[in-house]
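ingest -> validate -> predict -> emit
validate: passed (alphabet ok, no gaps, 510 aa)
predict: started
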Amino acid sequence: MNSSLKYLAVDLGGESGRVVSGAFDGKTVEVEELHRFATGGIEVDSTLRWDIHRIWQGIQAGLQTANKKYDKIESVGVDSWGVDYVLLDDNEQLVELPYHYRDRRNIGTLDQITEIVPKSELFATTGIQFMEINTLCQLFAGQRCGDALNKSQHLLTIADYFHWCLCGSKTIEFTFATTTQCFDPVKRNWATSLLDRLKIPTHMLPEVVSPGTNLGNVRESVQKQTGIGKVPVIAPATHDTASAVVAVPVATSSAKNWAYISSGTWSLVGLEVDTPVISAEALMANVTNEGGVDGTWRLLKNVMGLWLVQRLRLAFSSRGFEASYEKLTELAGQATSAGCFIDPDDPSFLNPPNMEEAIFRFCNETGQAPPADEGEMVKCVLESLALRYSQVLKEVSALAKTRIDVIHVVGGGCKNILLNQYIAGATQLPVVAGPSEATALGNLMIQCKSAGKIGTLGDVRTVIRDSVELIEFEPTALTYWQDALVKFEGLCKKRNSQNVAQASGLSELN
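emit:
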């Protein structure tokens, strides 16, 4: 691919960020990781923040590597995890280190918001799943915890903040804007009336631009620092899930009868639809509607993902048991089923001090014998994730009034063969795993599309399907998974009742 066009994707995740190159020869695309760096949250005065200075250093280091490797770079674009934001003042200076979505200040905000704006009205206005990590909840917490918002002139998402660092653009890309719970998907603009009722400033909300927009050329200062030259900065689908869904390698014959799971720290589970589904049934199911590329929408649910395993690994390490993710998955595959499950979306798993202890506590409180060892613990988590995915896919399928014939698992989690097999079993549907580099691929191919090198979203997916290796998994063990789903749904209902009772101040369940 020496004659291929070279594009750069900056792909930022909750644990790490990467600068990835894409070589496109008109028929296939080949990706290469150029530089990886840590992104994770940092503790600042009892709060959890993002060290965006460190992240920017990592991005620049990746651009320097790209400059040394390639004679010419066609463009660069950034995608990132969702919900978090950066505030700039009148002088375009950072107001404060941005908060991490797992910071404790968000606790209780959803109840406070829905006392002012009923859930039915909030969902009708935004179409977004109710989660205390949402941008809306964070902004509500922010305006009650200080004057940072009042000092701010510009609000940028994480991805678009780094676009500003690269080229000075102060815009927010559409797919990310739709995820904030501050955007009206019907009016296709900021929900300013809603924000006014919550006393959240709206003067700082920027213009919303479409994926593929040319934001301008790299700043001269960045050119000097990195050497990459006068390269265009293109807004991809900046929300990482949107980019990942761009890269779902569906065959043309699949039509709309496919679902996706973008599997990573979070799992995003859903369907691609033509219009948002904002109905009473969608409200009851607590689903979300997020913008996609070429007029598509993502009807999905956020599910706690491999964060659970990441934090288990840390908990194991703290007591001297060191193992790679591959080793933990191997142990889970060898383990006898512990016969216990967890609800991955239980609030106790959002950011516990010790994930192992949190799982033990959940099992005890729901009347289950906890896992006996590390392998059983990881097996419990992976099986529970698969069962939760099965629940969500049934919900979104019913809401969209469509059947699902195949599930595409993309993102880093698609490399977990055991989880993929569990998904096929729990859903009793075939699973196609790959590509693992879905987010970066989606980012890169939207840049190609913006440059006129490729046509439709379908063309993009054909290129990706022809460029990557895919692994297929068939359903197994129907009886086991049917029984497991019954038990799983029962314990979720029991746990939900406990949580409701605790929230009401009750010390015991009747």
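The CA atoms of residues 67 and 227 lie 6 Å apart.
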